[in-house]
TrEMBL record:
Pfam families assigned to the protein according to its UniProt record, in alphabetical order: TetR_C_14, TetR_N
Listed name of the protein: TetR/AcrR family transcriptional regulator
Annotated keywords: DNA-binding, Transcription, Transcription regulation
PANTHER family according to UniProt: HTH-TYPE TRANSCRIPTIONAL REGULATOR RUTR (PTHR30055), MYCOFACTOCIN BIOSYNTHESIS TRANSCRIPTIONAL REGULATOR MFTR-RELATED (PTHR30055:SF238)
DNA-binding region(s) in UniProt: 39-58
SUPFAM superfamilies: Homeodomain-like
Keyword presence, DNA-binding: yes
Species annotation: Arthrobacter zhaoxinii
Domain HTH tetR-type: start-end pairs: 16-76
Length: 203
């Protein structure tokens, strides 16, 4: 590795660390006083940076909570593609969402706080729906290719099944907040998948 490339890597790691610190501070403030009630100026003051510096790391307040929709969507897609090689579709979708569960379990307190902020804020709930629509564009083709049904029905069935799986993720996330983290996200997601398991097409 050249000295210049190592320098670029160090700068990026430093930037990522600062971005993470700002996000952690912002989530605490959002959780304590409300997302809509919190200003960028307040976040910047808590992080000892200028408001202009905040926007060097985040395009908006919403990005602090949800960020790039494919940051987690791509790992889900990869897990789903691998799982479809050996599992029925519904099980493979659950295996795909294991990428999300692992992220939650890596820092459950942060995940609980971020989810609590998200479900209590209408604009963030709308942004979360947009995230799922972005995920649909990469997950539905994989599900459609695995279905054994007439071609004219395949896309519709794939969208319905994938959206049901995303609903399991949503409802289990909300339940995680409702129970204040007393039950793990994995247990809640497994239960939701059992409750919504389709009886046809995907066994």
């Amino acid at each position: 590795m050249s000295a210049s490339s190592d320098g670029v890597g160090l700068r990026q790691r430093t930037r990522d660390a600062v971005r993470q610190q700002i996000a952690e501070l912002a989530l605490v403030i959002f959780d304590e006083q409300g997302f809509d009630e919190t200003t960028v100026d307040q976040i910047a003051a808590a992080a000892c940076i200028s408001p202009r510096s905040f926007f060097r790391y985040f395009a908006s307040k919403e990005d602090v909570v949800l960020g790039d929709p494919m940051l987690y969507g791509e790992p889900v897609r990869q897990r789903l593609a691998q799982s479809l090689e050996s599992m029925p579709i519904w099980q493979a979708l659950r295996a795909g969402f294991e990428a999300v569960v692992e992220t939650i379990e890596a820092d459950p307190e942060r995940a609980l706080r971020a989810t609590r902020v998200m479900i209590s804020t209408p604009s963030l709930r709308a942004r979360n729906t947009e995230k799922h629509l972005a995920w649909m564009t990469v997950l539905v083709p994989l599900v459609a290719a695995a279905l054994n049904c007439p071609e004219e029905e395949r896309q519709y069935h794939a969208r319905a099944i994938t959206l049901c799986a995303l609903t399991c993720l949503d409802v289990s996330s909300a339940e995680l907040v409702h129970r204040n983290g007393a039950v793990t996200s994995r247990v809640l997601l497994d239960e939701a998948f059992r409750l919504l398991k389709p009886t046809t097409l995907v066994d």
